[in-house]
Amino acid sequence: MYTPELYKDEDPESIRTFLKENSFGILINQTNGKLCATHIPIELEINADGKEILQGHISKLNPQAEGFAENDQVLAIFTGPHSYISSSWYDHENVPTWNYIAVHVYGRIKIVDYTTTVEQLKKLVDKYEANSENPVRVENLSAKTMREARGIFGFEIEINEIQATKKLSQNRDDHNYKNIISELEKTENPQSIAIAKEMSKCRK
């Protein structure tokens, strides 16, 4: 991912928090000579060796899974809030741009066994059911329902490289920076307001 130095996020804790809060990603690989992509939850976890990994699952009917055996190199893309930035918000002439936060994770994927897959599902469901009034638990599902888990491959991704971009108008002076935040807050667009909030964290 092309990222000018000014916009690189190299803070491991910041990246870790982002991945945990924006875990619905895009898994990309090459299958039969074609690039394939699937939109799925991909969770940051710690393996038995204490190393950070990504884990998730994919349908056995998804042709993308065929490519894991022939080429285990994958890319997982995670995106956060983003917003158009109008150059009319500056006190000088310039071009419009776009502010956004994104993380690319490169690694090697491997399929895990059924037992591990079910354990992954338990963690995933528990995470997203935490605030439910009547939370679903994998442990409480019937044998009939759990047979559906036979139709997926659980996977783990050994992380080789992480590239993180946080493009939040860092190249603007304080006056213009504050004005961008103010204009974003006026839009009533949730994505724009989220970007304004992230900008406010970066510069007081």
From TrEMBL:
InterPro entries in alphabetical order: Split_barrel_FMN-bd (IPR012349), TR_PAI2-type (IPR007396)
Protein name: FMN-binding negative transcriptional regulator
